[in-house]
Write a structure and sequence with these properties.
Number of helices: 8
Helix content: 40-55%
Distance between the termini: 21 Å
Shape: globular
Strand order of the largest sheet: 1-7-6-2-5-3-4
Length: about 240
């Protein structure tokens, strides 16, 4: 697909995404008032993500390496190469989940209301902001709410992308809360829309996603956080290197 056509598709995708958000926004505001309705807001995100992607010809296929017990609570750790990774995780989790992410998402019209209510923004340059964010994340886990954290903390400049080193925070949190890590490998979103799509556009296609077996943390202590991080990194790297 030529660059001009990909740019046109990206404009169409953004337009559809914006139009659907505009349509559901009154309901978003209602669910966000007072004590935010987590399930209601996430159902709206699910509808928004599915419809905007489907109307743009982008579909998501999840492959499970074992059956996931969704009655348990997880810290969900996907790799990150595209803005499409966000709807992918919304479609995977559907209801009781929050994102922990960079506070720049408060400036984005599409994500602002969610990061002001149910999601957890952090300033990675501020230790106090990170402390408060992870404390909120711990409270969510205590309440049985999955926390989605992109452990690389960025989308790199390499094309094709590489798996960047993981931040230690999610793995310390998993050990402190005795919560399993659920690694998720997103194989080709970068090929459908790299980063935010501004440079290379986007195109229709099938997003292939592998949900790996949970990595348990029972019996770990904080001294094992680096080993846990390395274990999860290697599992995800091996799956990325294998045929999707």
């Amino acid at each position: 697909m030529k660059l001009g056509a990909k740019k046109l598709h990206h404009f169409y995708y953004q337009s559809v995404t914006g139009l659907i958000l505009l349509i559901i926004y009154p309901l978003v505001i209602i669910f966000a008032r007072g004590k935010p309705n987590l399930n209601g807001l996430n159902e709206l995100r699910h509808f928004w993500s599915f419809l905007s992607s489907a109307l743009s010809g982008i579909y998501f296929k999840f492959s499970y390496h074992q059956k996931i017990d969704w009655s348990r609570t997880y810290i969900i750790c996907p790799n990150h190469t595209s803005n499409l990774d966000i709807p992918a995780m919304i479609l995977l989790c559907r209801r009781r989940f929050v994102f922990l992410g960079k506070d720049e998402l408060l400036d984005n019209l599409a994500t602002r209301v969610f990061f002001k209510t149910i999601d957890i923004p952090i300033n990675r340059e501020s230790k106090m902001s990170a402390y408060r964010g992870f404390k909120r994340a711990a409270a969510c886990l205590d309440d049985g709410i999955h926390v989605i954290i992109f452990p690389e903390g960025l989308i790199g400049d390499e094309y094709p992308p590489v798996l960047h080193p993981f931040k230690i925070g999610p793995f310390k949190l998993a050990i402190e809360q005795n919560i399993p890590i659920l690694p998720v490998v997103i194989h080709n979103n970068w090929n459908l829309m790299w980063d935010d799509g501004k440079r290379s556009g986007s195109k229709p296609g099938l997003s292939r996603i592998s949900v790996l077996p949970p990595v348990e943390t029972e019996g770990f202590n904080l001294n094992d956080a680096e080993a846990l991080r390395e274990q999860v990194y290697q599992k995800m790297q091996e799956r990325l290197a294998a045929p999707a």
